[in-house]
Hints:
Elements: H1 2-10, H2 13-18, E1 23-30, E2 33-40, E3 43-49, E4 59-63, H3 65-71, H4 83-88, E5 92-96, H5 98-103, H6 105-113
Parallel strand pairs: 1-4
Antiparallel strand pairs: 1-2, 2-3, 4-5
Amino acid sequence: MIEHLQELVNGNPALVHRGRWTNADMLLEVGDRGHVVAIRQGRIEAVRPVEMNVSKWHFAIRASTEAWAEFWQPMPKPRHHDLIALIREGKMRFEGDLDLLMANLLYLKLVLEAPRKLEGTA
Length: 122
């Protein structure tokens, strides 16, 4: 899913416009694999694997592979449909600059929901 995030977001002009003030490096952790997603003016500039103790990021969104797989289903089951719902279930956590994350939460939710549109999701 993560390998398609850049094209899904950058190919959606409305989503890029919504995030036009967003400039951040987000650590997206799926199970034990992390990727730094560089967001600049609402566009995803790069998605790169985390380099051990070298990668810098502003905030992190971490969840198990199973939680992400369910979240990315075209129609997720209840309590797996939203980032906050996954936090309430104890299956996801936010870390780092939470002010920056929360200021851009709607945009980030839409970015992370984008893989639901892919065929054969999860």
